[in-house]
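tool_call: predict_structure(chain=1)
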Amino acid sequence: MTDLSPNPSDSGPAMDRTDLAALEGLEEKPESLGRQAWNRFRRHKLALVGVALLVLLIAAFWIGPLLSPYGVGETNVVDNNQGPSLAHPFGTDPLGRDYFVRAMTGGQFSIRIAILTAGLATAIGLVIGSIAGYFGGLTDSVVGFLVNALLSVPAILVLVVFSRRVGSNPTMVAVLIAGLSWIRVSRLVRAQTLQLKEQEFVLAARSAGAGPFHIISRHLLPNLFSVLLVEVTLLVGTAIILESTLSFLGLGVQAPLTTLGTIVADNKGAIDTRPSRVLIPGFIITMIILSINFIGDAMRDAVDPKAGVE
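tool_result:
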């Protein structure tokens, strides 16, 4: 007689595999916020192009002059006013100086000034914005009045006036630009601080007896890191534009030092006869700004979980 009762061994292995898969799914660790942000960032093709382009430019700025046999200030009246050639890839200027070396060295100073400016502006805006947002009241009103007063004055006018006093020192130029670039950071930090200070973890720290500056430094600032990272990136591009504008007006870094803006200013009279002298540094500045903007846009989307990836 045939036994028609179900055999436990027939369904057992299948159920075991299902249970095992479910258990494995439960044991998988969720992705960290940093990993999620990185995955969103790397899906931006323009951002990856921007990173590659910026790395190549920075490498050329620092390595290029080392590979060239010419010095940044080395003159040769015999080879002056030459066009691009194998010996001089970008040509030479009226004093016979190698234009490639000068452009690469100018890129070094432009990047240094931009990074220093972005760092100082972010630090100033972070301190002022977090204090205004956390304490509110009179402190917030004073900061708001200061910000509105600075916004009512054209930034380029302030730069022109004060640049005559600080001289052509690259550090002082960076400090001057940073003194006008912290406003956006402070307003952003203030808005974020107003939201975060009402969160439960801040209220718990306050109930435990933590002081205001302890709460700001240990609880609020770490939560502002992702937002500030985006702002630092965008400030670098803004600083390069402002520094180039000052140098073009003859108010930025002066000889014997040079920046990309200084090179454009020195050769603006040759735009009709030797346009490459203006177009080459201008093109380099454009590529830097574009790459930084691509990176900044991708970083903004990466740190915002609700942002869609194009």
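agent: Residues 99-135 form the longest helix (37 residues). Proceeding to next step.
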